[in-house]
């Protein structure tokens, strides 16, 4: 009795030591992840003189002063009154929304076909679809630029540029949607459609009435992930959006001119860009890993 | 009007001759391809239009030199755009830096990500941590760039203050062409600063992927290891690691591809500078194509990058299909 108590006491102490070490490591990583975002959000509601205030080197206690300031929202309101951020947000919504809808509607059909059909060379086909998504953005942009010039999509007109952007976003959203949704269709038992076909449903009707509702979570997740990817894009928008269809990320980057960096505006606009995506990210939390790995890893 | 009547009648009575011909034609077209190929057709057409044509265009363009003035036409230069790369200093520099970028980003992300995943696996607050760790991934890379540029600022950056206060940094600026402390063979501190921003955003992805892998480790194997008296390190090496190997491999390839894909971070943080120490190959390509507008040279570099990613993509597909087969065999 006494002996087991002794052993368990030493073991307990050892375990407690490792446990504290573990908590410290988790806490450190937690701070590393959250502090930059917190600083961004805080600084965006500070006057410049408060935002630019950091303590002396080595003055650890002085760091607490980060929380002492009187909040102001003028960086946010300036974006809408002095710049045209309402329009830029609309551009972002139109471009990323349309591309996502196109990608998911075409993609769900293709994903279902890929999941069900016994297609010869299926692996090659899926590889080709994947490769369009994984190609380096800049390498894809060079030929697209020349093609878009030919189609007149780079003329200074808002709708032409938006159309170009939608096409450009489709180049990565569509292959993503196909790969992502495929596993959802594969999970649905084939027996369900076979039963429906015995009952006289056509292929298309079985797809619409039986498969689509069952795959709905996957389809919604695909839509949201496409939205996140295209909303966050900068490089495509900076070239194909030109001046007439500036999206939110491009407009943010233009607050940084050769002369000065408008930090208040950049941090405010950054917060505006991030917050909706955080919500969407939480909505698809369950599918995030699957999404980021093109459906290769399941949670 | 008569047509409409015919249409409604045909539902009750036998179909009319003309409609029969239509539906027969329709059936014949439908029969040309199986249903599954039909529904894939729109995607295949769209993807072909936005990939195959640009791909061919790129190859053709890479043999030309782009005309710089209106009215002139492109000149055929054969393989010159490729051969000149051999003694193109920034190109070789870009390849070298890209390899460094892979090495540093991937090793730090995988090491830290796997450790944190092991730490928070099955902890009481696991779900809360996951929610927090999702956040950096949702931030647009360009905003990550600005955020870190803000933090790195010499006169008001909190990151600068932290590095200075903790004595980790001796130099005057973070985004400098200086060698980091202790590692004189490393790329510049500016390069490390870009890596740090990438690590901040994407380590959480590795955490989530590894967590997903950890949930799939068979409980009875862990139990057996415990009964055999294996310590945590041995359990990890001999039970956990073999089980999450394929998941880790996929994580690596995905990060690999995204590292070549995106240049937003560098665009904001350093623009390739100082002294080209952060001009990794994709960013150099961006400069060649969209600053100097040398599309021919850009196409050649782009083609080389593309071959590289195609190779990685093949690898990825093989891993995925192999994993699938394993699952279906065991299931």
Give a summary of the structure in a few sentences.
The complex is a heterodimer of chains A (299) and B (331). Chain A has 299 residues and is mainly alpha-helical. Chain A has helices at residues 2-44, 48-51, 74-81, 85-116, 122-134, 137-151, 158-187, 190-198, 203-231, 235-240, 248-254, 263-283, 288-292.
Overview of the structural elements:
The complex is a heterodimer of chains A (299) and B (331). Chain A is mainly α. Chain A has two domains: 2-72, no CATH class; 77-292, Orthogonal Bundle (MetI-like fold), CATH 1.10.3720. Helices cover 74% and strands 0% of the residues of chain A. Chain A has helices at residues 2-44, 48-51, 74-81, 85-116, 122-134, 137-151, 158-187, 190-198, 203-231, 235-240, 248-254, 263-283, 288-292. In chain A, helix 7 (158-187) packs across helix 9. The longest helix of chain A is centred in the first third of the chain and has 43 residues, at 2-44. The mean pLDDT of chain A is 88. With 331 residues, chain B is mostly helical. Chain B folds into two domains: 1-32, no CATH class; 86-330, MetI-like (MetI-like fold), CATH 1.10.3720. Helix content of chain B is 73%, strand content 1%. Chain B has a two-stranded antiparallel sheet. In chain B, helix 7 (141-152) crosses helix 8 (158-165). The interface between A and B is large, with 98 and 100 residues.
Helices of chain A, by number, come to: 13
As for the number of domains of chain A, it is: 2
Number of strands of chain B: 2
Mean pLDDT of chain B: 84
**What is the CATH topology of the largest domain in chain A?**
MetI-like fold
Given as residue ranges, the uncertain stretches of chain B (5+ residues, pLDDT < 50) are 1-15
Largest sheet of chain B: 2 strands, antiparallel
Question: What share of the residues of chain A lie within helices?
Answer: over 70%
Shape of chain B: flat
Strand content of chain A: under 5%
**Rg of chain B, Cα atoms, Å:** 28 Å
Number of domains of chain B: 2
Output the CATH homologous superfamily of the largest domain in chain B: MetI-like
Shape descriptor of chain A reads flat
Question: Strand pairing plus helix content of chain B: what structural class?
Answer: mainly alpha
* CATH superfamily membership of the largest domain in chain A: MetI-like
């Amino acid at each position: 009795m006494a002996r087991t108590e002794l052993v368990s006491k030493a073991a307990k102490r050892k375990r407690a030591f490792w446990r504290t070490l573990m908590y410290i490591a988790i806490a450190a990583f937690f701070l590393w992840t959250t502090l930059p975002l917190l600083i961004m959000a805080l600084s965006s509601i500070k006057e410049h003189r408060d935002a630019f205030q950091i303590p002396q080197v080595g003055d650890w206690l002085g760091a607490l002063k980060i929380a002492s300031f009187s909040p102001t929202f003028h960086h946010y309101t300036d974006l809408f009154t002095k710049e045209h951020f309402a329009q830029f947000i609309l551009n972002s919504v139109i471009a990323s929304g349309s591309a996502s809808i196109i990608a998911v509607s075409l993609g769900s059909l293709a994903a279902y076909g890929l999941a069900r059909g016994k297609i010869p060379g299926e692996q090659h086909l899926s590889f080709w679809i994947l490769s369009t998504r994984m190609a380096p953005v800049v390498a894809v942009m060079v030929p697209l630029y020349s093609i878009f010039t030919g189609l007149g999509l780079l003329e200074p007109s808002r709708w032409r540029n938006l159309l170009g952007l939608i096409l450009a976003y489709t180049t990565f959203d569509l292959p993503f949607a196909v790969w992502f949704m495929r596993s959802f269709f594969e999970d649905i038992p084939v027996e369900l459609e076979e039963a429906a076909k015995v009952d006289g449903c056509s292929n298309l009707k079985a797809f619409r009435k039986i498969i689509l509702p069952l795959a709905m979570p996957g389809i919604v997740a695909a839509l949201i992930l496409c939205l996140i990817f295209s909303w966050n894009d900068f490089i495509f928008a900076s070239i194909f959006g030109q001046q007439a269809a500036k999206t939110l990320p491009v407009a943010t980057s233009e607050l940084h001119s050769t002369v000065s960096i408008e930090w208040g505006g950049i941090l405010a606009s950054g917060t505006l860009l991030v917050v909706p995506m955080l919500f969407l990210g939480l909505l698809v939390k369950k599918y995030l890993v699957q999404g980021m790995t093109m459906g290769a890893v399941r949670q | 009007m008569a047509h409409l009547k015919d249409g409604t009648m045909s539902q009750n009575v036998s179909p009319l001759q003309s409609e029969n011909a239509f539906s027969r034609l329709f059936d014949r077209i439908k029969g040309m391809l199986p249903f599954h190929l039909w529904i894939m057709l729109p995607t295949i057409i769209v993807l072909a239009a936005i990939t195959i044509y640009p791909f061919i265009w790129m190859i053709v363009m890479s043999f030309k030199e782009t005309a710089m003035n209106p009215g002139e036409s492109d000149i055929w230069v054969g393989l010159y755009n490729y051969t000149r790369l051999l003694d193109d200093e920034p190109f070789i520099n870009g390849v070298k830096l890209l390899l460094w970028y892979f090495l540093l980003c991937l090793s730090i992300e995988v090491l830290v990500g796997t450790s944190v995943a092991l730490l928070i696996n099955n902890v009481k607050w696991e779900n809360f941590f996951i929610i927090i760790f999702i956040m950096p991934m949702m931030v647009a890379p360009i905003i990550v760039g600005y955020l870190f540029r803000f933090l790195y600022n010499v006169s008001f950056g909190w990151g600068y203050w932290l590095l200075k206060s903790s004595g980790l940094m001796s130099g005057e600026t973070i985004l400098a062409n200086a060698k980091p402390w202790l590692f004189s063979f490393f790329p510049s501190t500016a390069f490390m600063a870009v890596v740090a921003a990438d690590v901040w955003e994407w380590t959480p992805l590795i955490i989530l992927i590894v967590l997903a892998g950890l949930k799939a480790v068979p409980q009875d194997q862990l139990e057996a290891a415990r009964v055999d008296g294996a310590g945590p390190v041995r359990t990890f090496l001999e039970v956990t690691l073999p089980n999450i190997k394929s998941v880790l491999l996929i994580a690596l390839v995905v990060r690999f591809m995204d590292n070549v894909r995106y240049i937003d971070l560098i665009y904001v943080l350093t623009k390739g500078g100082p002294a080209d120490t952060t001009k990794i190959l994709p960013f150099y390509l961006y400069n060649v194509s969209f600053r100097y507008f040398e599309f021919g040279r850009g196409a050649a570099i782009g083609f080389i990058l593309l071959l590289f990613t195609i190779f990685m993509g093949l690898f990825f597909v093989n891993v995925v299909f192999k994993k699938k087969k394993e699952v279906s065999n065991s299931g």
